[in-house]
Amino acid sequence: MAHEPWATESRKVAIRDSTLREGLDVPGVAFSTGQRVRIAKLLDRSMVPEIEVVAPGRVFQDLEFARSLKSENLRIKASGLIFASSPRCREEVKAARECLERFDVLMPVSEQRKPYDRETKKEVLLDALSYSREYCPNVGVGFPHSTQAAPEFLLEICQESARRGAARIFIYDTHGGMDPFGVYSLIRRLRECVDVPIFFHAHNDLGMATANSVAAVRAGADGVDVTVNGLGDRAGNASLEQVVMALHLQGLETGIDLGTLKELSQAVEQESGIPVSKLAPVVGEFVATHKSPAHLDIPKLFEAFDPSLVGLERKITH
Is the pTM of this model over 0.70? Predict the structure, then answer.
């Protein structure tokens, strides 16, 4: 076990929160500028280090919010995404450098998305990366549909991106169809091939986003994307509160203040209008409630974590 990437040393796992990007892809959710600022402030108070606020399909619109957020003088770093193949990529890069601490250029690696052939994908991405680094040295790359592409091509384009100066690499399980075993194998293989930070972005279509995120970390990923309450496109994304708690219980540090997770969850529930299930892990109303007679003598024996860590109280009901 000592040779496992996650266990070789005590290390910190980077957390990027994507609530203010992915959340806007949820039907019925339309955060106002004021709501976005309030959520950003709560994430800042929770010690989340990075917040993703610019979506690749609405760059200039979201950059207006990023500009307004700068005036709040928060500790949290704002980042965003830009499609390498966008006809306005260079304009978007120039605009992004003015109000984002960092950004990542994206290239879908599925052959069903433009540009279709592999060589063109590489050429377009590397050109965008080179151009972006002229304006901002801290530019990463991201690969939507990573888990739907041929692994050898994914490894090839990741290696070339790292050689060309990518500051980090994002691996996306865009359709949420992977399992922890597949994620572990993919990230472990990639970790052996590149020496830049690797992040993993999980979707929850099969209910495995949290497990997949933890598997990625155990395979050597340096960080993960999360959203509060798992808010996001379709079935949502990896839940910040679940991922952070799972990593904490495995002895991996994220720097997130666990005591703020319940309040953060409630605030995003209120601002988004998307209810949190009473059965939700970590922050759900029933997570520390015991009804079964078998539990009542030693209730803590039936709890995965001390509920006081997230500001919950143990309850006994009948």
Answer: yes
